[in-house]
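May I ask for an example protein's residues together with how it folds?

___
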Amino acid sequence: MTQPDTSISTLPKVLIWSNEHKAWWRANSQGYDNNLAGAGLYELAEAEEIVAGCSGRNEQIVTLEKAFTALQKQAWEADKAICAAWNHLDKMEPIFAATNVLSRT
């Protein structure tokens, strides 16, 4: 039976979250980004070295799976809030129509 290749080069990339800056590390340690799309992808060994160099207090390694699960939850919450706002707006439409406020003409 052949063992799977688990060398560091075949391991998935990870992200680094800065608790101090409340943002993702950008690629090549070039600052921070609040947007997940701007986060840099790091080899696990490199990320561990960066976090260790920061005493591990302010930075943490985050798997892509965990980051995208959190992003999906945020998207679901945003969608729920938008739907609630539209439902509220529909209930307010008779009031707007009666007062000519924000009329849809």
